[in-house]
Amino acid sequence: METLEKPALTQEEQFQARIDADVRIEPKDWMPDAYRKTLIRQISQHAHSELVGMLPEGNWITRAPSLKRKSILLSKVQDEAGHGLYLYSAAETLGASRDQMLADLHSGKAKYSSIFNYPTLSWADMGCVGWLVDGAAILNQVPLCRTSYGPYARAMVRVCKEESFHQRQGFEVMQTLCEGAPAQKEMAQEALNRWWWPTLMMFGPKDSESPNTEQSMKWRIKRFTNDELRQKFVDMMVPQAEFLGLTVPDPALKWNEERKAYDFGEVNWEEFWQVVKGNGLCNADRLQARVQAHEEGAWVREAANAHAAKRKAREGVGA
Ligand code: 3HC
Fold first, then answer.
1. Does the record bear Ribosomal protein in its keywords (predicted)?
2. Listed residue (269, 260, 143) closest to 205, CA to CA
3. What is the distance between the alpha carbons of residues 136 and 159, in angstroms, rounded to a whole number?
C-alpha cells in the first residue's frame, strides 16, 4: 500500500517546531518578520528602561548618607548603563539601528518602563527601588534567560547576576531604616506606600488587556504571562515586608489558603496607561535628561569614531 508522503513543513512550521523543541533562535536563522519585530520592540524598550532607570537613583548619588552607600549606588547605576548597552547590542543583532532606537527614545516614540517616571523623594526610595523594582526586574528577567532568542537570553544571564546584588542592597537599605529610629522606619513605610502599586504595574497590563502576551508565549519569548509574574511578585514580597515590620498599602491583600497565594487589590489601570502614554510625574524630566546626556556625550562618540577610523586606515595600510 503506497505510503502517503507527509507534506513538507512550511518555513513557519519549521520555525515553530524549533521553538517548541526549545532550540535557540540565532541571528542568522530564518525567523518570521513578526518575531523579529516584536523582539526589537521588547528588547529596545528593555534597553531604554535600563538607561532611564539610572536617573531616579542617579538623583541620590550626591546625597547618599555614607561613602559606603554612595559607592554601592554608584556601581548599581553603572551596572544599569551596562545592561542597556548589552540589550541595545542584542537588538542590533536583529538589524535594529542603535541611532534609530535612541532617536525613538528621545522623541518620546519608544516606550520604557513606567516605573521610572516616579520621583525619588527620600533615601528610603533608594531602598524601595532596589528591593521592589529590582526584585520585580529579577522576577521578569530570570525567565528571560530562557527566552527563545539566543542573544537576548545570553544578555539576561549577566544582567540577572547583577540584579541580585541590586535587590540585596536595596533590601539592606530598608532593613537599616526599619531597625533605625522611628522617623527612619516611618520614611521606609512612606516610600513603600508610594512604590508598591507602580511596581505591580511594571509587569504590564492584565493578560486580558495584553495584545502581545499570547503570541510572545507561543514564541517562548515570554515564559510566564504578566499576571503570573505579578502574582509571584506579591507572594514573594509580602513576607519580606512583614519581616521588615512594614505594611503593604493594599487593604484587599489577604492570604488565600485554597490558592496558596495572596489575593490582592486592583491596580489603578487608568494611572498605568496615563504614565505609559507619557503623562506621568517625571516623563518629561526623564526624556529631557536623556536627550541632554546624549547631546553632551556627542564628543565622546566623535572621538571614538575618529580613533576607530584612524586605526582602520592604519591597519588597512599595514595589512
Ligand atoms: N511600562 C511601559 N510600557 C509598558 C509596561 C510598563 N510597565 N508594561 C507594558 N507596556 C506596554 C508594552 O510595551 C506594550 O506596548 P507596545 O506593544 O507598544 O510595546 C503594551 O504596554 C501592552 O503590553 P503587553 O503586556 O502586551 O506587552 P509585552 O508583551 O511586551 O509585555 C513587558 C510587557 C512585561 C514589560 C515585556 O515587554 C517585558 O518583559 N520586557 C522585558 C523586561 C523589561 O522591559 N522590564 C522593564 C524594566 S527593566 C528594569 O527594571 C531593570 C532595572 O534594573 C532598572
1. no
2. 269
3. 13
Q: Which residues have CB under 6 Å of ligand 1?
A: 41-42, 45-46, 49-50, 53, 80, 111, 113-114, 133-134, 137, 140, 163, 201-205, 210-213, 216, 226, 276
pLDDT band at 319 (very low <50, low <70, confident <90, very high): very low
The answer to whether the beta carbons of residues 150 and 236 sit under 8 Å apart is no
pLDDT band at residue 5, thresholds of 50, 70 and 90? Answer: confident
Q: With contact defined as beta carbons under 8 Å apart, do 283 and 229 qualify?
A: no
What grid cell was written down for 92?
A: 542590533
Average per-residue pLDDT for the chain: 96
**Residue 3 predicted with pLDDT over 70:** no
CATH number, domain 11-317: 1.20.1260.10
Q: What is the mean pLDDT of residues 192-212?
A: 98
- What pLDDT is recorded for position 76? 96
| Residue identifier of the C-alpha nearest atom 5 of ligand 1 | 204
Run of H or E including 262 = strand 261-263
Rounded to an integer, the average pLDDT of 78-82 is 96
CA–CA separation, 16 and 137 (whole Å): 28
Domain ranges of the chain: 11-317
Question: Which atom of ligand 1 is least distant from the CA of 229?
Answer: 34
pTM of the complete model = 0.95
- Cell matching residue 179: 531597625
Query: In this structure, what C-alpha cell is assigned to residue 303?
Result: 572621538
- The whole-number average pLDDT for the span 8-35 is 96
Query: Which ligand 1 atom is nearest residue 226's CA?
Result: 34
Contact status, residue 289 vs residue 55, Cβ threshold 8 Å = yes
